[in-house]
From TrEMBL:
Residues 5-115 form the DUF4440 domain. SUPFAM superfamilies: NTF2-like. It holds the Pfam family DUF4440. This is DUF4440 domain-containing protein. It comes from Ferrovibrio terrae.
Length: 132
């Protein structure tokens, strides 16, 4: 991955560590899409912030300490795009950490990278497996 993409994901992770919904949401383009068990299209920044706040509330209530990630793989898509698959670890005060992969498609708008598609294909099942 390029230094710009690495810096983008470090900023994204830091926004999660701060439990700051607006800072997390600032990493998404509008419109953008989230796919987990369902698909959500975010048509406004307010849509993104509202959904991220729900996720961060879940994190807070689960004893969130911090988030770390490893890049599982990435693929450039010309000069203005990249897909990346990250392996996240969510450390919590009590209980086992949550570990899961999430896929991202990023596009560069002017000089800023933004997430246009987030595929959260393991997060919910990872949380449920640890809580079971």
């Amino acid at each position: 991955m390029t230094a710009g993409i690495t810096a983008f994901f470090e900023s994204y992770r830091a926004a999660f560590d701060a439990l700051d919904a607006r800072a997390v949401a600032a990493h998404f383009a509008v419109p953008s899409m989230l796919i987990d068990e369902q698909a959500y299209t975010w048509a406004s920044e307010a849509d993104v912030v509202a959904d991220i706040e729900k996720l961060l509330t879940l994190y807070r209530n689960s004893g969130f300490v911090n988030a770390t990630y490893e890049v599982a793989n990435s693929l450039p898509q010309g000069d203005a795009g990249v897909t990346a698959n990250l392996y996240w670890t969510i450390t919590r005060r009590s209980g086992m950490p949550w570990r899961f992969h999430t896929g991202y498609t990023l596009r560069r708008f002017d000089d800023q990278w933004k997430i246009v598609l987030c595929i959260a294909y393991e997060e919910r099942s990872a949380r449920e497996k640890v809580q079971a």
